[in-house]
Design brief:
CATH topology of the largest domain: Rossmann fold
Helix content: 25-40%
Strand order of the largest sheet: 3-2-1-4-5-6-18-19
Structural class: alpha/beta
Distance between the termini: 35 Å
Bound molecules: nicotinamide-adenine-dinucleotide
Number of domains: 2
CATH class of the largest domain: Alpha Beta
């Protein structure tokens, strides 16, 4: 079978790196790569060729591949060029856009969505959401430090002492914890907040303070995701966040609710009271943002506060992001790749959860 690796049109990463091309060609797959697919993440066409891949134009890969792999889903006009029966592996985010997978079904293709892989222990090594969130958390802090007109660490110099920057991280999941760790490494004083009490120990183990709001709803059955909180809790949370925002130099927000718009946690009023020159990096911007003022994919200045809305920061560390992404796909495809062929067994929990369309049959059901 022919596996096609496509160049991303709005991302610096590439889904598959040459290392995996080598392994797949040894397993009797033919690998076609779009010329220049790894250019922006520092993987050359020569490396793909050496690994056993064959360079082609995009159109040829679309019409010849039996399996196509791309990070961001293809647009409608390209889906119609794909050969019938092809399997496309991408991130469809069906909670937000069912039209893309409906389109795949209408064209009698199959689709696997990496963001739907279940968050179970055996699937941890396949979890692109976690590996990319970790990179985004790191990069968010680096970007904040770059925009801040102040130092992060405490410094005692002959010209006077500099106090450490105060960083507030809202949402201490994968991205948030990496933000905490990175800000701590740069010497900031860090506080972090999450509705999941399980995050407390993790935050504290990184040397940061956990901001606790009492009365959070139990999320034990939500598969590692947060659940929507009561109005009373939200009010208490708002008051506490207000108090912390006013003191912070940097706020990194990462709070998400699976399949729902991101909770609005940093209000206009809070931004107004923040110190001039403070920086907010909102990693939840693609689902509406945690800050009321966030504009997705834009950096704005409001009341002297820089607000960066970007949920795609993994793309800004493209080399390592591609390497980890490719490793996640390698581990995932091991479940259903067999000696140059594939078989989608819907009895398998990982395949069942991530298979959106099988041979034209729409399997995803909106909950
Ligand atoms: P996410 O991106 O969905 O959310 C980010 C964080 O925001 C979460 O920690 C969430 O609790 C928090 N949040 C949501 N609403 C909030 C609010 N109103 N206020 C403050 N915080 C809020 O989640 P994630 O970071 O991808 O993962 C969350 C958890 O799942 C982590 O503990 C992670 O370790 C776990 N996880 C497990 C597996 C696995 O076992 N395979 C894989 C990935 C993640």
């Amino acid at each position: 079978m022919k596996i096609g690796i496509l160049k991303e049109t709005s991302d610096k990463r590439v889904a598959i790196v040459p290392d995996l091309v080598k392994k797949w060609t040894e397993q009797k797959f033919e690998v076609l790569f779009e010329n220049g697919c790894g250019e922006q993440s520092n993987f050359s066409d020569g490396q793909y060729q050496q690994a056993g891949g064959r360079g082609h134009k995009r159109e040829e890969i679309l019409s010849n591949g039996d399996i196509l792999i791309v990070i961001k889903p293809l647009e409608d006009k390209e889906t119609s060029k794909i050969k019938k029966g092809c399997l496309v592996i991408s991130n469809y985010q069906p909670f937000f856009k069912t039209d893309l997978i409906e389109d795949i079904a209408n064209k009698e293709l199959s689709a696997l969505s990496l963001d739907m892989i279940p968050r179970i222990t055996i699937a941890q090594s396949m979890d692109v959401l976690s590996s990319m969130a970790s990179i985004a958390g790191y990069k968010a802090v680096i970007m904040a430090a770059d925009h801040l007109a102040r130092y992060f660490p405490m410094l005692t110099t002959a010209a006077g002492s500099i106090p450490p920057a105060k960083v507030l991280v809202i949402g201490a999941g994968v991205a948030g914890l990496q933000a905490v760790a990175t800000a701590r490494r740069l010497g900031a004083v860090v506080e972090a907040f999450d509705t999941r009490l399980a995050a407390k120990e993790e935050v504290e183990s990184l040397g940061a303070k956990f901001v606790e709001v009492e009365g959070a709803k139990d999320d034990a059955s939500a598969g590692g995701y947060a659940v929507e909180q009561t109005e009373e809790y939200k009010q208490r949370q708002k008051e506490l966040i207000f108090e912390k925002c006013v003191k912070a130099d940097v706020i990194i927000t990462t709070a998400q609710l699976r399949g729902k718009p991101a909770p609005k946690l940093v209000t206009k009023e809070m931004v107004k009271e923040m110190k001039p020159g403070s920086v907010i990096v909102d990693l939840a911007s693609s689902t509406g943002g945690n800050c009321e003022l966030t504009e997705d994919n834009k950096t704005i200045v409001h009341d002297n506060v820089v607000i960066i809305g970007n949920s795609d920061l993994a793309s800004e560390v493209p080399q390592h992001a591609s390497q980890l992404y490719s490793k996640n796909i390698e581990n995932y495809t091991k479940v259903f790749f067999k000696e140059g062929e594939y078989e989608l067994d819907l009895e398998n929990e990982i395949v069942k959860s991530s298979c959106m369309v099988k041979e034209g049959n729409l399997l995803y059901q909106k909950q």
